[in-house]
Automatic annotation (TrEMBL):
Molecular function GO labels: methyltransferase activity
Keywords recorded for this protein, A-Z: Methyltransferase, Transferase
Name under which the protein is recorded: Class I SAM-dependent methyltransferase
Pfam family, one: Methyltransf_25
Methyltransferase domain sequence ranges: 46-138
UniProt cross-references to SUPFAM superfamilies, sorted A to Z: S-adenosyl-L-methionine-dependent methyltransferases
UniProt-listed GO biological process terms: methylation
InterPro entries: Methyltransf_25, SAM-dependent_MTases_sf
Organism per entry: Arthrobacter echini
Length: 251
């Protein structure tokens, strides 16, 4: 089993969905589906790291033919509880090499997931893999957070990103390797029947927007649009995330 397979195991897959809340809330999903539907322009789409279908399922319900690529068997199993194979094709494999077909109008990779690839080479290969599967003029959409290195105090290697009842998120940085490990700490009365706290760690390689643009150019894409969020708000120096739309040349 690979490190990523161990990270996205059955327990994580079963706990991943939070219907109606957080990243599954209508406020998050509705603008995401609207933008992706418009960019698909009536053609088929492929989601890299489709997971449990958080975006793919409502996008399919909106009328877009969606296929998926997913490394985790456990995440695919949860997706299959929602949608059958004949309704949404999902290919198990790594998003740097696995293909779900050709001549897609849209490929998309959301919720910071390109950062799960821990080397620059693999991140470039992900762009190249998207380009291979798109039709001429097709676009690749990447949603990604902006590294918050300005939050690092001198001599400190980490930042507190979230502090709320029952949950802490602490990020620790290796700025030489562009690696960040997110430490998710859950605690409170709901855990009283077990350990006082639970901690999970997820590793990432962070990417600056300009570096992401260069990766896209190496794969033949040009940056078409960049917004701070799915509502198409302006991207600024203070934005903490971005939605970037890259397009291949037309035939």
């Amino acid at each position: 089993m690979t490190d990523q397979q161990q990270l996205w195991d059955a327990a994580t897959a079963q706990a991943y969905d939070t219907p109606g809340q957080g990243m599954f809330s209508p406020e998050v999903l509705a603008p995401t589906v609207e933008v992706l539907s418009q960019l698909a322009a009536g053609g088929p789409a492929v989601e890299f790291a489709v997971g449990t279908g958080r975006v793919a399922v409502p996008l399919s319900e909106a009328g877009v033919q969606v296929s998926g690529i997913e490394l985790s068997h456990a995440m695919i199993a949860v997706l299959r509880e929602k949608v059958a194979e004949d309704q949404m094709r999902v290919v198990q494999g790594d998003m740097t090499t696995t293909t779900a077909g050709e001549n897609f109008s849209l490929a998309f990779l959301v919720f910071n997931t390109i950062a799960n690839l821990l080397t620059q080479d693999d991140q470039v290969r992900c762009f190249e893999n998207a380009a291979r599967q798109l039709a001429p003029g097709g676009c690749f959409v990447v949603e990604l957070w902006v590294p918050q290195l300005r939050s690092l105090s001198p001599g400190r290697g980490g930042t507190l990103e979230v502090s709320e009842p029952g949950y802490l998120l602490v990020d620790t940085y290796d700025v030489l390797q562009q690696h960040v490990i997110s430490h998710h700490v859950q605690f409170g009365p709901e855990l009283s029947d077990g350990p006082a706290a639970r901690i999970a760690r997820t590793p990432h390689r962070y990417i600056w927007p300009s570096e992401l643009d260069l990766m896209a150019r190496l794969a033949g894409f040009e940056l078409e649009s960049r917004w701070a969020d799915w509502d198409r708000s302006a991207f600024t120096a203070e934005s903490r995330s971005h939605v970037s739309v890259y397009r291949l040349p037309s035939a």
